[in-house]
Amino acid sequence: MADFESGVKSFIKGKAEIEVNFPVDFKDKADISCRQCPYLSSNERMCQLNKQPVQYPSRFIGAYCPLKIEALED
């Protein structure tokens, strides 16, 4: 076990890649909003990926959303 009593010299990064599927209806209207993301907190106030507050989770994705949204597939 490491001894951090005198501080931390540096950090080693760990990275993960995730995929979130946003629904598209039969008229090709997509709902890309935080409300459709499984990483929205249960009280709908916080993104669990970036720990930032979200505004209007039913209408938009957060300004600091780390997801890269791809184009709608045909």
3D architecture notes:
- The protein has no helix or strand.
- The radius of gyration is 17 Å and the shape is elongated.
Shape category: elongated
> Which oligomeric state applies?
single chain
Beta-strand level of the residues, as a percent range? under 5%
Structural category: little secondary structure
Can you summarize this structure?
Helices cover 0% and strands 0% of the residues. It has 74 residues and is largely without helices or strands.
Please name the defining characteristics of this protein.
single chain; little secondary structure; 0% helix; elongated; 74 residues
Give the SSE map.
Blueprint: no helix or strand
